Amino acid sequence: MIWSAFFVVSGIIAAQLLYPLDRAVPFARLGSQTVGWRTEVDLSQVITQSFQASKLRIKAGDDTATYSLSSSGAEVNAETMALSLSDYPFWQRFIPLSILWQLPHVDQVVVTYNNQALDSFIAQQQKHFRIAPVNAGVAIKAGKLVATHDTPGRTVEADAFKSALVHTSIGYGAVTTVQLDTKAVPAEKQSRDVEAVAAQAEAALARTITITAKDKSFTPKPELVATWLTLNEDEHGATTLGLNKAAVSKYIAELDKSVGTPAGQTNVTLENGIEVARDVGKVGAEIDATPLIGAIRSYLLDGEGSGAMQASLIDVAPSIIYNRRYTATESGLQAYVHDAARDQNANIVVEQLSNKYWSASANAGLSTVSASTYKLYVALYLFDQMNQGKIHWDDPMLDTTVSGCFDRMTIASTNPCAEQWISQFGRDTLNAFTWKHGFSHGTTFTDPMATHTTAGDLANYMVGLERGTLISGAQRDRLLHSLSSHPYRYGVPTGSSASEVYDKVGFLWDYVHDAAIVRHPRGTYVIVVMTKGRSYATIANITREVEKILYP
């Protein structure tokens, strides 16, 4: 019995000692999921994808607004979260059945904030949550003058906003609520400050207006005229009576329906950005609003002129609608790329590597926040160090090896390994290296906000990778494998009809990029799309339209 017990205990300890270091322990939980036995790279991918869908619900008083977590400047530390799920200390493995006690549960997201992006986000949201105070005064309602009392406003101070956001624990796979403290903003104006303007408003409300246009007369009701009056403040803070130009213009637009003539529509057809046809619409007519508004202002506010007003008509040019089409030519490709870059706030490069060898670009040299696409340049320098015998795949790196780190950087697209290499190599060294290899100074690791690159540099990288002139042999095969096996396939791979797409995505704050080699059945080409304020669906659609031109 003693020997049996010894062998059972020894077997359990041996099994615990052999449990892989890079896999989550059997009863590990990520949010509501059991993730035992899954690798750290796999877990990092899952965490990163969940982070992209994470939301912040920000509350200030009774006001609530929801934003994506990444838009606040947050960056997820997926590897730290994954490591906590696989953490099984070596000394505990000698304790029989200790594996059953390992119950890590990650239900919060580990994030860091980029200060510049966070400050920008807070500045934007302060405007949303701010409520201006209402000063004591008078208001015109239903054609009558009504006294109003002062009402305090509300503001959210930037430091308090930042502190609340940074110190809020972010729930994994959930919408996290951030409660903001607000500060009251008192009103400045008292009732005695508006007595004079009240008398002026009463006089204006008593005046009658009749407008004649094209043998038709119109007399707006007093209740309507009352909506044309506004109470404003001059440079000294005094309340003054003014004219609501927008309200008067709206009334004149209603008169145009009776006395004016609608303008037609001119349809302009553009082929490859060049006008090839124009169908001119008819000229319309409308009331000349500017002098009429001036006469209304003088009469209502100052009692000058007459309440009987004559309106004249002026011509209205037809509206213009542009219908764009693109031929299956290089000029058609360039015209589409130019229009797409303008309409989608994008930097785009397309270059065929076979077939007709067309190329097109827009904003190719514009230096932009690179997001994770900078990892391509880090990989290039890493390969150079390997070729010099200074680094090897099995060298220790963080809690894994260089090989494991390379997969985390290029497949899971997490940051710690890449940041460690940047620290090890030096930002200035990486700059000099990339520039020496022909990339522009628009690619830089020393920008104070974040690493930058250009669509043109990324395109040149992908061309060199595909042709084997930049990276070759086993290193090229290893990188191409990473670029085809990552989970972020919603941009170029989704938009392309090709089955082979090798791409590196980048997503940071509101920047979304994709740089790809596309091996289409009818030819190979490189496409780079860098966007701000758009989505992978936009990149997919641009890819789809490009292929319609390349391979009709």
Structural overview:
With 552 residues, this protein is α+β, with helices and mostly antiparallel strands. The protein folds into three domains: 2-132 and 151-180, no CATH class; 191-321, Roll (Ubiquitin-like (UB roll)); 327-550, DD-peptidase/beta-lactamase superfamily (Beta-lactamase). It has 18 helices and 33 strands. The strands form 13 sheets. Strands 26-25-33-32-31 form a five-stranded antiparallel β-sheet, sandwiched between helices. A hairpin with a 2-residue loop joins strand 19 and strand 20. The longest helix is centred in the N-terminal third of the chain and has 17 residues, at 2-18. The chain is extended, with a radius of gyration of 33 Å.
Protein topology:
Elements lengths: L1 H17 L10 E2 L2 E2 L5 H14 L1 E6 L2 E6 L5 E3 L1 H9 L18 E2 L1 E2 L1 E3 L1 H15 L7 E5 L2 E5 L4 E3 L2 H9 L3 E2 L3 E6 L2 E3 L9 H11 L4 E4 L2 E3 L3 H5 L2 E5 L5 E5 L1 H15 L5 E7 L2 E6 L4 E4 L1 H14 L5 E3 L2 E4 L2 E7 L4 H15 L1 E7 L6 E4 L5 E2 L5 H13 L8 E2 L2 E2 H11 L3 H10 L1 H10 L15 E2 L1 H13 L5 H13 L6 H4 L4 E9 L2 E10 L2 E10 L3 H15 L2
Helix pairs in contact: 2-3, 2-12, 6-9, 10-18
Task: Report low-confidence residues grouped into runs of 5 or more.
Answer: none
The second-level CATH architecture of the largest domain is: 3-Layer(aba) Sandwich
Percent range of helical residues: 25-40%
Which strand order do you get reading across the main beta sheet? 26-25-33-32-31
* Backbone structural class: alpha+beta
